[in-house]
Write a sequence for this structure.
């Protein structure tokens, strides 16, 4: 395996948006920053034909995915779940396995609960996982940091939005590069 887990390939990657829902987002201090970064990552996914998979934890209680994200997701059809680990929902694993991809970019709420358990589930299933540190959040910084530390210790790559954007692009000078450059200015 070596360094391979640190590289992203647009043809072998899926973007996962974990539980960025209305009532949950309302109590997150960093929601605006996280939603903005998830939007950038979703726009990149659309440009590069990277599948986007959305989960919603008990939507009757926590609401639906925030409208800002729904408006940019190419095909909004969330997988509803009661398990904290998305991988514990059989239909979620069905959808992700149908993509045939083995690398996952993970975003969402909350870092130390659903994001953490999903990342552990993906690692157990053999995925290379990139957790986007500025596209995940928890109610407290201590919980956010604890979640990221556990995921790194388990073997996930902890990264940031701009690293993912440019790693997926690989080269400058393309129309995609110009579009991404405009996104981050």
């Amino acid at each position: 395996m070596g360094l391979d887990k640190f590289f992203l390939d647009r043809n072998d990657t899926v973007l996962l948006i974990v539980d960025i829902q209305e009532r949950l987002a309302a109590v997150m201090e960093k929601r605006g920053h996280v939603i903005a970064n998830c939007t950038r990552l979703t726009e990149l996914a659309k440009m590069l034909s990277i599948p986007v998979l959305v989960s919603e934890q008990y939507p009757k209680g926590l609401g639906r995915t925030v409208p800002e994200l729904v408006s940019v997701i190419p095909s909004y059809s969330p997988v509803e779940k009661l398990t904290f680990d998305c991988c514990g929902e059989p239909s979620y694993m069905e959808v992700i396995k149908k993509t045939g991809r083995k690398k996952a970019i993970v975003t969402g709420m909350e870092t130390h609960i659903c994001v953490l358990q999903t990342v552990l589930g993906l690692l157990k299933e053999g995925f290379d996982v990139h957790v986007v540190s500025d596209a995940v959040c928890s109610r407290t910084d201590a919980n956010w940091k604890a979640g990221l530390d556990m995921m790194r210790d388990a073997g996930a790559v902890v990264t940031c939005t701009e690293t993912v954007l440019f790693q997926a692009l690989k080269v400058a000078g393309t129309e995609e590069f110009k579009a991404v450059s405009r996104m981050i200015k």
